[in-house]
């Protein structure tokens, strides 16, 4: 009797594992990779954003040059 209950628990555990794996697999299939042109465009935009200081950085530089403290 104990073994039949144990088999049922194992069977339910296997069903749960298969359901979780299939849902993970379906979720993984929805992940789309970027094309090379999209990656290059994105990296160029990040490079431009990193190279050009924003208005906050310009205000800090102007404040320090004018003699005001931070």
3D architecture notes:
By secondary structure, the chain is mostly helical. The protein folds into two domains: 1-31; 41-70, no CATH class. The protein has three helices and no strands. It has helices at residues 2-29, 36-51, 55-65. The longest helix has 28 residues, at 2-29. The radius of gyration is 28 Å and the shape is elongated. It starts with a helix and ends in a 5-residue tail after the last helix. The model has no long low-confidence stretch (mean pLDDT 68).
- In the residues, how many domains can be counted? 2
Instruction: Tell me the number of helical segments per DSSP (H or I, 4 or more residues long).
Output: 3
Q: What is the mean predicted local confidence, pLDDT?
A: 68
By oligomeric state, this entry counts as single chain
- Summarize the amount of helix as a percent range: over 70%
Tell me the β content.
under 5%
Runs in which pLDDT lies below 50 for 5 or more consecutive residues are: none
Task: Write a brief structural summary.
By secondary structure, the chain is mainly α. The protein is built from 3 helices and no strands. The radius of gyration is 28 Å and the shape is elongated.
Could you name the key traits of this structure?
70 residues; mainly alpha; 0% strand
List the helices and strands and how they pair.
Elements: H1 2-29, H2 36-51, H3 55-65
């Amino acid at each position: 009797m104990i073994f039949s209950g144990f088999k049922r628990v194992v069977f339910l555990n296997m069903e749960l594992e298969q359901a979780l794996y299939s849902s993970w697999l379906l979720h993984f299939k929805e992940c789309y990779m970027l094309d090379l042109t999209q990656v290059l465009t994105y990296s160029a935009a990040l490079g431009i954003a990193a190279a050009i200081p924003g208005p906050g950085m310009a205000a800090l530089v102007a404040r320090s040059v004018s003699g005001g403290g931070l």
